[in-house]
Design goal:
Blueprint: E1 3-9, H1 13-24, E2 29-32, E3 45-47, E4 50-52, E5 59-60, H2 67-74, E6 83-85, E7 92-96, E8 99-103, H3 107-117, H4 122-136, H5 149-152, H6 159-166, H7 170-176, H8 192-200, E9 206-209, H9 213-225, E10 231-233, E11 238-243, E12 250-255, E13 260-268, H10 272-279, H11 286-291, E14 299-308, E15 320-324, H12 329-337, E16 346-350, E17 364-373, H13 375-384, H14 386-407, E18 416-422, H15 424-431, E19 462-464, H16 474-489
Parallel strand pairs: 1-2, 1-13, 2-10, 7-15, 13-19
Antiparallel strand pairs: 3-4, 5-9, 6-9, 7-8, 11-12, 12-13, 14-17, 14-18, 15-16, 16-17
Helix pairs in contact: 1-9, 1-16, 3-4, 4-8, 13-14
This protein binds flavin-adenine dinucleotide (FAD).
InterPro entries: FAD/NAD-bd_sf, Retinol_saturase
Transmembrane segments: 462-485
Keywords: FAD, Flavoprotein, Membrane, NAD, NADP, Signal, Transmembrane, Transmembrane helix
Length: 494
């Protein structure tokens, strides 16, 4: 059996980044992905000339000297895979009853705008931004984030705790938690640390790829594929990881077709709990099993629309829209997390074709929308009746589309030429996301704490990389994968 230096299970951004860096360093890498496309949640699927990316809408830390750029530079890809900055004056638009507010980059600017809007709370607003700013110091090395003494004080806090502490009025609370779909939790559930870490990136701005996320994924994938020593395997599910005689090391990976591959080291990019299924729970010490006893984040209903004969720029810009039919985000989430279609609605939408023209047939546009939803509801429907499942998900999608038409894009429905709707069960099927979880673990204080998993497994030569092992998102996982590469090789990425 041919032996590799590293076997990587999963071609999400974590697996691809680590694999590409190791391949570039001359290591012999083999990488497996059960999907027929690379990228995990960041894969690009194509229908009728439209290219859709289900898992990345906008990203962070892509500027010179920041984590994404540093990694691309290390691979010599920084000129090929480029990003455009979204409008610093406003790339997130929060809309609800009596509110239409655009959030941009630069804490100072945001702080003074909000202080003008809420003059009685100027002092507290300043304090809020000073807390967020502290988290910004570790944006290029996220692993250090949870070791940072300053955050201990806030580890058990939710965002709502901070709002209550500062006695922020409801309208200000809505603006500051307006990007809640970025975490898929309302303020009364969201870890303050995660909110602060996420919003910290807003200081230097948000990005979108010049062409498409597919270019970033393919750039990394090809680094591994084109390296003579390495081997890439799409449509290849790993069903078993075998241990050595004293159960301290992983020695081989077995595919669904019964093929066996051996390596000195193993890197697991799938959900870490799944690694327990592949190895056997009995080989995981109880203490470690506790680390893996996390709750999953919510899944989403995703709507991908292809549009024709419409000048979408008349109604939308490059920004993301966060819409809440009711300004009480906490109660809106309760409705979305319950079974069924919510009465009141929150949604996140944007038009990727207004950011890049490489995504659609000429003269067309694409619009994507998501809303948090209950996994079990759709899983039960699907197992009982496929027809009923489709009926309900399409009805839910109708509600999102009707809302976008009513509030943002008049006449939208008459321009739809392609409509694809996914639920949490779709993510479970295509990218092995358990319960369709969008961000790995739930991002509440119970699941984000100093016991967070990180790279180490109970086996000397197996490592975790991915959303559930540390933090979700394109840039954080790239940063975390760069850390792993540095630990494994002693080489520096930045
Ligand atoms: C709707 C939605 C919107 C999002 N929006 C953004 C955004 O705007 N910006 C942002 O930065 N992040 C966003 N995210 C989060 C981001 O997409 C994820 O955190 C990130 O892509 C996860 O990467 P990962 O490396 O953890 O791997 P994943 O993407 O989870 O991929 C893991 C891969 O491993 C494979 N795998 C697992 N087990 C096996 C096995 N046994 N054999 C073979 N292969 C296996 C899976 O098939 C999968 O492809 C969003 C997520 C969702 C769902």
């Amino acid at each position: 059996m041919e032996k590799y230096d590293y076997a990587i299970i999963g071609m999400g951004i974590g697996g691809l980044t680590t694999g590409a860096l190791l391949a570039e360093a001359g290591k012999k890498v083999i990488i497996f992905e059960q999907h027929y496309l690379p990228g995990g949640y960041g894969h690009t699927f194509k229908r009728e000339g439209f290219s859709f990316c289900p898992g990345w809408h906008y990203v962070w830390n892509c500027g010179k000297g920041e984590a994404v750029y540093n990694m691309l530079k290390k691979l010599g890809l920084e000129k090929e895979v480029t990003f455009e900055k979204l409008d610093p004056k406003g790339f997130d638009r929060v809309v609800s009853k009596g509110i239409d507010y655009k959030i941009g980059s630069g804490f100072e600017r945001e702080c003074s705008r909000l202080s003008v809007m809420f003059p009685n709370h100027g002092k507290q607003i300043k304090k809020y931004f000073s807390i967020i700013e502290k988290f910004n110091q570790h944006k290029n090395n996220v692993e250090k984030l949870l070791c940072f003494a300053y955050i201990y004080k806030y580890l058990k806090w939710t965002l709502q705790n901070l709002f209550d502490h500062f006695q922020f009025p409801p309208k200000l609370q809505l603006i500051l938690s307006g990007q809640s779909p970025v975490f898929l939790l309302p303020p009364n559930k969201l870890s303050l640390v995660v909110h602060a870490w996420g919003i910290a990136s807003y200081d230097s701005g948000a990005y979108y790829p010049t062409e498409h996320f597919e270019k970033a994924v393919n750039g990394l994938f090809n680094k591994i594929k084109d390296s003579k020593k390495c081997s890439t395997h799409l449509s290849t599910e790993i069903v078993k990881l075998n241990l050595n005689d004293d159960n301290t090391r992983v020695i081989s990976a077995e595919t669904k077709n019964g093929e066996m591959f051996s390596a000195d080291n193993f890197i697991f990019n799938g959900d870490p709990k799944l690694s327990m299924d592949l190895i056997g729970k009995e080989y995981f010490p109880e203490k470690f099993q506790k680390k893996l006893d996390y709750d999953y984040s919510s899944g989403v209903l995703s709507v991908f629309l292809g549009l024709k004969d419409i000048d979408l720029s008349k109604y939308m810009g490059k920004e993301n829209i966060f819409y809440y039919s009711d300004p009480d985000i906490n109660s809106l989430y309760e409705q979305h997390f319950a079974q069924g279609i919510p009465k009141e609605l929150q949604l996140f939408c944007n038009a990727p074709s207004l950011r890049s023209d490489a995504l659609c047939p000429p003269g067309c546009h694409q619009l994507v929308a998501i809303a948090p939803c209950n996994y079990q509801y759709f899983a039960d429907l699907r197992s009982k009746s496929r027809a009923e499942y489709i009926k309900v998900k399409e009805k839910y999608a109708d509600k999102l589309i009707d809302t976008i038409e009513e509030k943002f894009v008049p006449g939208l429905k008459s321009h739809i030429v392609l409509r694809i709707v996914g639920t949490p069960t779709t993510s479970e099927h295509f990218v092995f996301a358990p319960q369709g979880s969008s961000y790995g673990t739930s991002l509440d204080p119970a699941n984000v704490n100093i016991n967070r998993l990180r790279h180490k497994s109970p086996f000397k030569n197996m490592y975790y990389i991915g959303a559930a092992s540390f933090l979700p998102g394109f840039a954080p996982i790239i940063s975390f994968a760069s850390n792993l590469y540095e630990k494994l090789t002693g080489d520096k990425v930045q």
